[in-house]
User: Fold these one by one.
Assistant:
Number 1:
Amino acid sequence: MRGTSIFGVLVVIWLVIGAVAAGQRGYYDSGEANCAEVGTILVTIAAGPLNYVGANPQVDCELPEPSQ
């Protein structure tokens, strides 16, 4: 059981580091959020400490247009 709690703490620390990296890049400052911005924030958070060793994940998404 102890190994599971240590793993959980490591995952939380990983995600916090990613959230800090996203904040340092100014991703939280934009007023409107679109698919690409939200996706970039999420993958930056998921990348965690990898952001500090050169990772710069970005998402480019295009949503389908509704039929007319």
Note: DSSP finds two helices and no strands in the chain.
Number 2:
Amino acid sequence: MTASRAALLIDGSDTEFRELVHDMLAFAAAIQEVRNRLGGLIGLSGTQYTILMSIARLTGKVPELGVATLAEHLHLSGAFVTIEINKLVAAGLVSKAVNPSDRRRVLLSVTPEAEQRLAELTRVQAPANDTLFGPLSGSEFRAMRSIIAKLAGTGERTLKLIDYLAPDGKIETAREQVSPLV
């Protein structure tokens, strides 16, 4: 058994759980490649594209959009986001301004060049997203959105659990049992 929680088992079997994980891996690989290709169309890596899109979408919706808020939104480390933002600034796609509320922080915004590239990208982006999520009805999309939002934050806690159970990275010395809610 690869899972033990009753909610993950169907008739006492983990078969559907394993099939779900494999389907999710296939979808994650597809969505990652779509992101990379969309970024490539405007001269960016997939990660840079995601960061740029997020800044464009959050500007005006999130007061004082800075690195920490953006990193939290994307479930990435602040240090990594800072490195990628600096590349976008160097490319003339992101502007940083001193935050008047806290001069140690910066406010992020996209430049007119970035707005133009993102507007042009919609010619490919919209049909790509429509196709990627095409099988879903509106209610299925909303349900998936809710479920994925719940799962998005579990990765870091799960990695900490694995490190606790197998601190030396070897199965031979892994701890035997732990509460599944650790």
Note: The first strand starts at residue 94 and ends at 98.
